[in-house]
Write a structure and sequence with these properties.
Layout: E1 2-8, H1 15-25, E2 29-33, H2 47-66, E3 72-77, H3 82-90, E4 97-105, H4 108-120, H5 128-135, E5 145-148, H6 154-161
Helix pairs in contact: 1-6, 4-5
């Protein structure tokens, strides 16, 4: 049985760090960050680019799931709407796959502090704090396992989300 981990959360909550650690911990594991499919300059968010990105994500994840070399597939992306998660799941070959849908969250202050550190390090633009805080409450309405990462280490988060 394969395992597919779909890990969402607002910007700055630790999705990539958790997924990288999962990739190291789980056997025969491959990792895709949805942001890689948006890595374009200039950055365009249109109906066409949104469809293209979703298509690319589904294609890559589908190939990972069909490949016998992998037992675990880990994916992260903002995924702040149930419709995004539903479309993704509907387009994947999930026969003999155990699906783990997880939303990482944090307190507003912890999230703002993490993002401020990234801004000071030159990793993010200042407008990210408002956007991320606006997205935070959207995760409560999703059909996912919620994990509040405030005060947790990456190892403690992994212990919470792995069987």
């Amino acid at each position: 049985m394969k395992h597919l981990y779909l890990i969402g959360g607002p910007m700055g909550v630790g999705k990539t760090a958790v997924c990288r650690a999962l990739q190291q911990r789980l056997p025969n594991c491959v990792f895709l960050d949805g942001d890689w499919c948006w890595d374009m300059k200039p950055f365009y968010v249109t109906d066409e680019t949104k469809a293209m990105v979703m298509d690319n994500i589904c294609h890559v994840l589908g190939n990972f799931l069909r490949c016998s070399a992998f037992d675990n597939v880990v994916f992260c992306w903002v995924m702040h709407q149930q419709s995004i998660l539903d479309e993704l799941v509907s387009r994947l070959p999930l026969r003999d796959v155990e699906l783990h849908c997880i939303s990482l969250t944090a307190s507003r202050s912890a999230l703002a502090d993490r993002l401020q550190k990234d801004i000071e390090a030159g990793l993010r633009q200042p407008d990210v704090i408002g956007r991320s805080l606006d997205y935070l409450p959207l995760y409560e309405g999703l059909n996912t396992q919620k994990v509040d990462t405030t005060g947790l280490t990456i190892e403690e988060i992994i212990e919470t989300i792995t069987p």
